[in-house]
């Protein structure tokens, strides 16, 4: 179990890296607008780096033709399951570490990071092994034709080798956000993805590796990032032993986030499967706009990352008014950012799809999706911000329930109805819009109720 709490200035609580200027002070930041910006801006770059690389990857592969683009749409959706699992792992760790940090116990916050890293490494290795055997059946289940399925399976077998690094990086982001260190994650993630963005076009075209070059570039980025976060963890503590009791506690307390993540994955996998049935051009357009959606969502999530850390630290330190103040500020910021993104995406409707492929049929299908994409943004900005508040507060059971309801009552019925009635991509994206709208109503209600603000170094209610 965690050691007794000590004041942040206690020598016994210091780590070997504490004297390094790259490690922030041990005292939690006051939940002011400036603190939100200080945490959110580096988190914004970290969140944007991976989807920005995926957009570059999509643009490079799109110039190989329709089939490679469709293959990345299918296999990339499968790999996004690992990415979402990593995101959920990071979010759960941030909340737990932030409460310990807010209570004045940085050492226990780092312990959370060690145990999450063991869990991440184990799951990552298992995913990489599973993909070697399961890539073919998965690709055939999701793809609309044999050529796309074969190409997708080959890409997936290579790309899955980056899963251990991907999940180690997620675990590292989680505990470092919990102790309010967002500068080092910025350097680690940005550096790895810049390297991969350079490698991708070089391996695909001059080296002649084609679609496989794209997958290798993914593996390089994820492995380098995971190694950097592991090195940061070693610099913080010499005690890297796995502690099964803490790992089990993390798994138990994270089960609601995992179920919630599974609901997201069921939605996105189903959406890709339905889009594939409408033809290669449809799934290509779906891939482009879906990746733009993921990019926008993660950028809008920057204030939610700050909320997770500040809300968790405030509640861990027994300051409910400060936690509510953070919630109010990030909700407003999320809404404003969502409106800004809506204006930006609306202005790019006739230009952006051409960045990814010259195929006119794909452009036509993207135009069908675009109004839905733009219309969801203001609502999504609020939803993502409040997700951060509730995750930071540990109110994940409520998030689990509302996400399941949104998926089962909104998204999934709508997109499968779209398939049955041959409504095309408009029907698929109408399902996503309903998913966001249900979550908007229910998260705003929870925020206003105040039931999420439970005090203590650990959440017991």
Summarize the structure.
The chain is an all-alpha fold. It has 16 helices and no strands. InterPro entries: DinF-like, MATE_fam, MdtK-like.
Description:
The protein is an all-alpha fold and 461 residues long. It has one domain. The protein is built from 16 helices and no strands. The N terminus is likely disordered. Belongs to the multi antimicrobial extrusion (MATE) (TC 2.A.66.1) family. It is a multi-pass membrane protein. This is MATE family efflux transporter. It is found in: Cell membrane. Keywords: Cell membrane, Membrane, Transmembrane, Transmembrane helix, Transport.
Strand content: under 5%
Helix content: over 70%
In N-to-C order, the SSE pattern is: HHHHHHHHHHHHHHHH
Overall shape: it is: globular
User: Average pLDDT across residues?
Assistant: 83
Main β-sheet: number of strands, strand sense, barrel status? Answer: none
- Count the strands? 0
The tally of structural domains comes to: 1
User: How widely separated are the two ends?
Assistant: 20 Å
Helix/sheet category: mainly alpha
Low-pLDDT parts are: 1-25
Overall radius of gyration: 21 Å
The number of helical runs is 16
Protein name: MATE family efflux transporter
Pfam family, one: MatE
Subcellular location: Cell membrane
Biased composition (Low complexity): 11-24
């Amino acid at each position: 179990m965690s050691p007794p709490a000590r004041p942040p200035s206690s020598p016994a609580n210091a780590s070997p890296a504490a004297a390094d200027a790259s490690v922030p002070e041990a005292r939690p930041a006051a939940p002011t607008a400036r603190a939100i910006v200080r945490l959110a801006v580096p988190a914004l770059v970290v969140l944007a780096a991976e989807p920005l690389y995926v957009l570059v990857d999509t643009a490079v592969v799109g110039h190989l033709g329709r089939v490679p683009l469709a293959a990345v749409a299918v296999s990339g959706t499968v790999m996004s399951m690992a990415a979402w699992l990593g995101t959920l792992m990071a979010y759960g760790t941030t909340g737990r570490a932030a409460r310990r940090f807010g209570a004045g116990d940085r050492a226990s916050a780092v312990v959370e990071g060690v145990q999450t890293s063991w869990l991440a490494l184990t799951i990552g290795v298992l995913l990489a092994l599973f993909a070697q055997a399961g890539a073919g059946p998965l690709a055939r289940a999701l793809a609309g034709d044999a050529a796309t399925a074969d190409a997708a399976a080959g890409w997936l077998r290579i790309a899955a080798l980056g899963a251990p690094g991907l999940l180690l990086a997620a675990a590292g982001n989680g505990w470092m956000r919990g102790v309010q260190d967002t500068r080092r994650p910025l350097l680690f993630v940005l550096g790895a993805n810049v390297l991969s963005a350079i490698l991708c076009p070089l391996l695909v075209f001059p080296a002649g590796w084609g679609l496989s070059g794209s997958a290798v570039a993914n593996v390089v980025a994820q492995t380098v990032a995971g190694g950097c976060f592991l090195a940061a963890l070693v610099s913080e503590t010499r005690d890297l032993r796995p502690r099964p009791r803490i790992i089990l506690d993390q798994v138990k307390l994270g089960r609601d986030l995992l179920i919630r993540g599974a609901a997201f994955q069921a939605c996105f996998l189903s959406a890709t499967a339905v889009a594939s049935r409408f033809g290669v051009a449809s799934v290509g357009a779906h891939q482009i706009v879906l990746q733009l959606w993921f990019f926008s969502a993660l950028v809008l999530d920057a204030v939610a990352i700050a909320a997770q850390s500040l809300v968790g630290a405030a509640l861990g330190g027994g300051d409910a008014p400060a936690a509510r103040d953070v919630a109010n500020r990030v909700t407003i910021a999320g809404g404003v950012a969502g409106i800004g993104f809506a204006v930006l995406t609306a202005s790019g409707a006739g230009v952006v799809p051409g960045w990814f492929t010259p195929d006119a049929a794909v452009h036509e299908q993207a135009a069908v999706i675009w109004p839905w994409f733009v219309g969801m943004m203001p609502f999504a900005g609020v939803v993502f911000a409040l997700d951060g508040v509730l995750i930071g507060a540990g109110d994940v059971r409520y998030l689990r329930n509302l996400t399941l309801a949104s998926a089962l009552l909104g998204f999934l019925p709508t997109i499968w109805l779209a398939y049955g009635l041959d409504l095309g991509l408009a029907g698929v994206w109408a399902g996503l819009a309903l998913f966001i709208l249900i979550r908007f109503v229910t998260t705003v209600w929870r925020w206003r109720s105040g039931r999420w603000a439970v005090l203590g170094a650990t959440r017991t209610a």
